[in-house]
Amino acid sequence: MAILDLANPVRFLSLSARILPWIAAAAVVTLAIGFYLAFQAPPDYQQGETVRIMYIHVPFAWLGLFGYSMMAASSIGILVWRHPLADVAHKAAGPVGATFTALCLITGALWGRPMWGTYWVWDARLTSMLVLLLLYLGLMALRAAIDDPNRAGRAAAVLTLVGFINVPIVKFSVDWWNTLHQPASVFRMGGSTIDSSLLWPLLICAIGFTLVFIALHMLGMRTEILRRRVQALEARAAAEAMA
Amino acid sequence: MTHTVFIAASYGVSLLGLGLLALWLVLDYRSQRRTLSELEARGVGRRRANRSGEAE
Fold it and tell me: Which stretches are annotated as coiled coil (chain B) (predicted)?
């Protein structure tokens, strides 16, 4: 419980105020290096120049899944320990994860048109990724629909854990079904099938976007903590005015 | 460069999407901080602190 005790909103505000600018700066530098290498890398022998879309599409996909997994972990914190920071982390991850997932779908469609001849197919990978986006949007709508923040947090946590079944479905959809989407080519048994001249820029871009995700999530958490303080003070002010 | 339009559109929409998200988060943060400062300036939090003997 000692680690949980350390993770309180006041300590989080103090710590995040110090490290957030560094994370944001590291994200900018890492992405600058990543994009430089990505546009210096040779074109793919099949995709040609269109492979440049991979350097943003793949990190968006990973981070869409990462965000949801983080929300699932936060859900356990909400339901088991009723930890306020877990609820804050869960709520703040929603818009960030939804944005990354939506950008994954959009950039995938823009890659699919020249490569597959279509923007969209009801393929298992694409459809499960769309389900992930709908889960994010549904969770945000659920929180907005329930006035009591504690009830909203618990309901969202339960739905998040139920929806977590979609995460392995997204990951293994290309193995379980016959899909138009190519199978895993980076994290797979037997190692990556991507040439190192393309793989390294991809990994550096992925690190850069992960830092962007962390920075945006941290900012969202800081905002949510302040919003809860504002709501508590407004409720107190209203009670004092009535007394 | 082949398929330049699709590559440019992908990077453009990504920049726009992340830019709008960051802008919304920054504006929301500033708005909450401003409201909190106003409430504290009205002494809402201070009265509670004085009653409970806590330092804000």
Answer: none
**pLDDT tens track for A89-106:** 999 999 999 999 999 999
> DSSP class of residue A182?
P
Partner-chain contact A113 B6, CB within 8 Å: yes
Chain A residues with CB-CB distance to B under 8 A? 48-50, 52-53, 56-57, 60, 95-96, 99, 102-103, 106-107, 110-111, 113-114, 212, 216, 219-220, 222-223, 226-227, 229-230, 233-234, 236-237, 240
Position of tokens 């793919």?
A44
Q: Which two tokens stand for residue A198?
A: 């393309």
Helices A54-76 and B4-41: crossing angle in degrees, nearest 10, is 40
- Neighbouring-strand partners of residue A48: A44
Residues 6 or more apart from A117 whose CB is under 8 A from it? none
ipTM of the complex, rounded to two decimals: 0.90
The encoded tokens of residue A180 equal: 């138009």
For the purposes of burial, counting CB atoms within 10 Å of the CB of B19, is it exposed (0-12), middle (13-18) or buried (19 or more)? exposed
Task: Give dist(CA A17, CA A32) in Å, integer.
Answer: 24
